[in-house]
Each structure stands twice: as structure tokens, then as C-alpha cells.
Design brief:
It contains four helices and no strands. With about 90 residues, it is an all-alpha fold.
Length: about 90
């Protein structure tokens, strides 16, 4: 069961990460974002967004987040990302 979850995470990252990287690439190329590369900036964003939530959910130390919690996490991640990479 846990292996399936890891495989699902890899598939998700393999399909979602390139989309996020592509979006970030536009702003990175225009100079609106400052980072070593769009790939690194996308990785930073996902780390800010997800952090250790996945592992905490797998080990059941964190309940399923509510929609409000998810929205708050997204807003906080975007704010931190702008501070980290904004010009």
C-alpha cells in the first residue's frame, strides 16, 4: 500500500512539476523572478507548498487538511515564493 502511494507521488510530481516549471519559466525569462533556474524555482515553490505535509499525512500525524487549510497553505506558499524570488 505505501509503495503505491510513493508511485502515485512520483507520477504526480512527474506530471505537475513540468507544468509549474513551465509557468515559472515565463517569469524567470522575463526577469520577473530571480532564481538560479526555472527548475530550481519550481522546486522551491513545491517545497514551500507541500513541505513535509506528505510524509506527515502518510504517518498519520496530520489529519486531512480542510479546504480552508489548503487555501491558507497556498496563499502562504505564494507569498513566501514572491519574497524569495521576486524582484
Amino acid at each position: 500500500m505505501k509503495v503505491a502511494r510513493c508511485d502515485a507521488c512520483r507520477r504526480w510530481r512527474g506530471s505537475v512539476f513540468p507544468l509549474i516549471e513551465k509557468l515559472i519559466q515565463r517569469d524567470w525569462e522575463s526577469g520577473a523572478l530571480v532564481a538560479p533556474s526555472a527548475r530550481i524555482a519550481a522546486d522551491w515553490f513545491l517545497n514551500l507548498l507541500i513541505g513535509d505535509l506528505q510524509i506527515r499525512r502518510v504517518i498519520h500525524s496530520l489529519p486531512v487538511p480542510s479546504n480552508k487549510d489548503v487555501r491558507s497553505r497556498v496563499v502562504a506558499a505564494i507569498s513566501a515564493f514572491r519574497k524569495l524570488c521576486g524582484t
